[in-house]
Amino acid sequence: MKKPLIGITGDIFIDAHDELFPGLHKSCVNNDYIRAVEKAGGTPLILPLIFDSEAIKDQVEAVDGILLSGGYDVHPRFYGEEPLEKLGFILQERDKHEIELIKIAIELNKPVFGICRGLQILNVALGGSLYQDLSYIEDCNIKHFQKSLKGATSHTVDLIKGTKLFDILGEKIITNSLHHQAVKEAAPTLEITALSKDGVVEGLEYTGDNYIVAVQWHPEMIFENYPIMLKLFQRLVEESSKKQ
Prior knowledge:
The chain is of the alpha/beta class. It is 27% helix and 24% strand.
């Protein structure tokens, strides 16, 4: 049986140190995403940032499932706010691409798994909002941007019973944590599936028939040390195989 083709949303890396072409724009993803999808039994394919609506639809139609990767901050204009002081680097072109891609994926009933920024852009695409920095959240006192090797874990996360995420991972896990933005208001069609001890949203999933699950941490970085995290990618591959 042919392996499911998993499209991984790409980012633009602006290389200011390229000796020949300073400021060169490169389409790429961290290799951890590719390795995780391959290990889970899927065939990874990078989906570069593009602008033509028909071409974006072609991207979605060409794959069996989609992995929304991490990256830059989401511009607050997409959820009706002005930029605040602690907003990080933004790339509106990527926001536009992924918002359209997400809506098409839902229309075509393609499975989606979002990671970190992937969770955030999913929430924004469906009408939710974000905290532009964790410091704007009252009583947020856990270190959500860890200082450690990428394969290490940091804080605990409680998963909500009755959700797909609970079904995959169980009641409680220890995750890594590498983010400074977070969900403020969940989109109407998304439900919260996981929380850190200080109440920061760590998981979301779609309330409709589509398989759409997202987490705030980076399972692709820790699945080798913590094999339970591979289950998230295996579930995406499993759901995607149904779309072949």
